[in-house]
Amino acid sequence: MTSEPTPKYTRLDICRRFVTSVRHSVELGIDVTDADEQRVRALMPWQEKLVGNPDTGVLHGGAVFAFLDQVGGLAVAARVYPEFEITPTIDFRLDHLRAPAKGKNVVGVAECYRLSEHVAFVRLSAFEEGQEDEPVATGLATYMRMKIPSENYFRKSKA
To answer: What residue segments make up the domains of the chain, in order of their start?
Structure first.
């Protein structure tokens, strides 16, 4: 009996690498803190440039949306590991339950709960750091599964 070779990268490595390759994820300051087969957890730090209302200092809802969309795609990557797939968003529904407080970091959690041949289904939630029982947003998303060989994604660029 032959065993599968140990993957070169962990789920967390793949998620972090993908975040660094997407400009808006870098601008949002996304930090992937945990990635396992069931879910991905990431943090988006409060930043002045992401404020939607200068009078209150709360983050713009679009920043929360973009953050959770990225975390949802990462949950698919973690689920299909050690394979890698590009996962453009098909549909994304987000309920903004309340604004995160001024100066508070936002944590996002996404779970890829079902995979079909061409579509991944994801549940998402966001909350202020340390306030997991009081979400600021919850949502559902679907992502297209575009299968590519992982060696093509992790190939070193010729500098």
So the answer is: 11-154
**125 in Cβ contact with 75 (< 8 Å):** no
Mean pLDDT in each 10-residue stretch from start to end of the chain (159 residues)? 70 94 95 96 97 92 97 96 89 96 96 96 97 95 84 54
Rounded to whole angstroms, the Cα distance separating 104 from 96 reads: 16
- Beta-carbon contacts of residue 25 (< 8 Å; ≥ 6 apart): 18, 19, 70
Q: Looking at the domain that runs over 11-154, which CATH code has it been given?
A: 3.10.129.10
The two tokens of residue 18 are: 């993908």
Say what angle helices 11-20 and 61-80 make with each other, to 10 degrees: 140
**Closest Cα partner for 19 from 72, 58, 60?**
72
The 8-class DSSP code of residue 102 comes to T
- In sequence order, which ranges of the chain are alpha helices (DSSP H)? 11-20, 23-28, 61-80, 150-154
This prediction has a pTM of 0.88
